[in-house]
Amino acid sequence: MVDFLLSNIASAIFGSVFTSVIDFFKNTKGYIKIWFGLLGHRKERIRFSCGYLFRIKMDNKYLLIKGKRIEQFQPIGGVYKYYSSFNDIKNSLNITEEQNSIFYEDGDLRVYVPGKNVLKFIRWFNSGKNREVNVTREFYEELVVPGYIPENAIINAKFEFIKQAECKLGYSNAFRCKEVLIHNIYEVTFSDSTYLEKLNNVINQGEKSLRFVSQSDIEREAVEVNGVENKIGAHAKNVV
Fold this sequence. Notes:
This is CD-NTase-associated protein 16 NUDIX domain-containing protein. The protein is an alpha+beta fold. The protein is about 30% helix and about 30% strand. The strands form three sheets. Strands 1, 5, 6, 7, 8, 9 and 10 form a seven-stranded mixed sheet that branches. Strands 2, 3, 4 and 11 form a four-stranded antiparallel sheet that branches. A hairpin with a 6-residue loop joins strand 3 and strand 4. It starts with a helix and ends in a 9-residue tail after the last strand.
């Protein structure tokens, strides 16, 4: 009788542990490398930058724009903003904001998260709650405001979610800390091809901030402009 009870108890414990392990790996699917990379770093603060990038193509070339903060060509896009309702999450996960004003504007999802809460933060981000989910703001600011295309381009554009680029735990030399970059990729297509032609005409007329580049340019992280090699950000590979 005792052996029978012990056997049942052991089976129940094993079953519970096994179920917990399965649930854990389901919840960390796609981020298991980050989890392993943070073993032993539960208290270390990990920098996150959470943004979206646009794949805009014409004749098998990709539209890039010169960065405002870093001297390089990169995809159109930017960082998500969080809402005031994020404060509860921020407090519960002990999240702090980026302090470098060169790389931060109020409400940017550029934050520092303790290692022990990294997976919880990623799950929160992917829920879409307490943050911006509309991605037209940066499209408007980077292409419409400078006058490259008219305002009605937004009405005639489709923003289709393609993927979330693989999240990796890396090290930022600029910020001297471990870092995770989250990039959601959207493909932008226009109902009227004249918008792409307008962008191409702007470039042909001498605009130096925009460039249609080939996949090989993106892969080698450089493009030649007027005989001068210009750097392309490594994250541009995510839109290919």
